[in-house]
């Protein structure tokens, strides 16, 4: 494409579009129709220039024109409580449901890794001695030791807030760092599973695995599920860079990035519930069976929320992404 000829041919249209945009809302019906037509043509011109003969100055001008025209044509939209309701009842569960092929395998493999690490530590005294001195290990695992008092060492409200903040940070890191080709997410998962495995191994070697699971399961089921969802989403984001499929890497990354942003908001709420359980239920005087039952009920409620509401939303065509009218226009990719 001869860029100079192309610019000379269409410059008048761009100038006319700019003129109409400067008039704002003071347009006749015919002028409004003309603005829409010019907007569509200019967007096409921008795509052609970017794909065939990119020029920084012309691209910058047309990008600005298209953005202004799009804002004028589609109008501005303010978020409302209906958007929040739709996000909680359709958008977020749909996004989690659609990414289940990533986070369920992540969960299974991570739990297996924690179990293997726990078995290895619990059956090898030399590994335990490499972790800490015998007196320190006894202090950790004895009745009333550090593993047990950890959950009641602070006031419940402040402990719940601290737990929520820490877990939300871990989930956010999984979501954000997935863009770095998945490796940081795998490392974060490994560290979390190693910590869990160490606790399983040390408490099982002391004959107190039932006590440890009674402390971890009430909040850990929902907490770890949220972390696994975050990790699966992060891995999916990283894979979009490695294999974007039929989309350009930019478009694929934008789609998965929007999904990750929505996940961060939704998972913060899930982890808030987990933090409440860890702060108020885990250290409570309830019998172990009652505390574990509360954790199982919370986990089942979340899974039902994802599979019932999320599955229904996906079957209705919801992808968990923002509406098409609110997305940036996608440019054609070269064959």
Structural class, by secondary structure, is mainly alpha
Q: Describe the sheet with the most strands.
A: none
State the low-pLDDT regions, or none.
324-335
Number of strands: 0
Order of helices and strands: HHHHHHHHHHHHH
Distance between the ends: 17 Å
Keywords:
13 helices; 335 residues
Give a verbal description of the structure.
The protein is mainly α and 335 residues long. The radius of gyration is 27 Å and the shape is elongated. The chain has 13 helices and no strands. Helix 1 (3-22) packs antiparallel against helix 2, helix 9 crosses helix 10 (183-205) and helix 11 (209-242) runs parallel beside helix 13.
Write the layout of secondary structure elements.
Blueprint: H1 3-22, H2 29-52, H3 56-74, H4 81-98, H5 100-122, H6 125-131, H7 134-141, H8 146-149, H9 156-177, H10 183-205, H11 209-242, H12 249-281, H13 288-315
Helix pairs in contact: 1-2, 1-3, 2-3, 4-12, 4-13, 5-10, 5-11, 9-10, 9-11, 9-12, 10-11, 11-12, 11-13, 12-13
Q: What's this model, at a glance?
A:
79% of the residues lie in helices and 0% in strands. The chain has 13 helices and no strands.
């Amino acid at each position: 494409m001869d860029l100079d000829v192309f610019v000379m041919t269409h410059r008048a249209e761009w100038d006319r579009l700019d003129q109409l945009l400067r008039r704002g809302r003071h347009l006749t019906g015919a002028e409004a129709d003309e603005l829409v037509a010019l907007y569509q043509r200019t967007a096409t011109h921008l795509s052609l220039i970017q794909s065939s003969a990119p020029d920084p100055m012309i691209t910058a001008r047309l990008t600005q024109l298209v953005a202004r025209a799009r804002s004028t044509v589609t109008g501005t939209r303010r978020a409302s409580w209906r958007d929040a309701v739709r996000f909680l009842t359709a958008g977020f569960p749909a996004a989690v449901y659609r990414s289940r092929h990533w986070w369920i395998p992540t969960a299974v493999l991570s739990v297996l890794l924690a179990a293997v690490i726990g078995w290895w530590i619990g059956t090898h005294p030399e590994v335990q001695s490499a972790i800490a001195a015998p007196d320190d290990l006894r202090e950790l695992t004895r009745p009333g030791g550090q593993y047990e008092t950890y959950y009641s060492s602070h006031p419940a409200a402040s402990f719940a807030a601290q737990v929520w903040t820490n877990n939300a940070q871990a989930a956010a890191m999984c979501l954000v760092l997935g863009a770095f080709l998945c490796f940081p997410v795998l490392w974060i998962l490994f560290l979390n599973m190693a910590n869990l495995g160490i606790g399983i191994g040390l408490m099982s070697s002391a004959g107190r695995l039932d006590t440890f699971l009674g402390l971890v399961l009430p909040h850990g089921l929902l907490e770890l599920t949220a972390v696994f969802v975050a990790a699966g989403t992060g891995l999916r984001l990283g894979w979009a860079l490695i294999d974007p499929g039929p989309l350009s890497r930019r478009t694929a990354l934008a789609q998965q990035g929007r999904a990750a942003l929505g996940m961060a908001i939704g998972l913060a709420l899930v982890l808030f519930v987990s933090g409440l359980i860890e702060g108020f239920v885990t250290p409570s005087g309830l019998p172990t069976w009652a505390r574990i039952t509360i954790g199982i009920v919370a986990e089942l409620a979340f899974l039902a929320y994802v599979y019932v509401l999320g599955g229904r939303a996906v079957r209705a065509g919801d992808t968990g992404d923002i509406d098409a009218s609110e997305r940036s226009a996608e440019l054609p990719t070269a064959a």
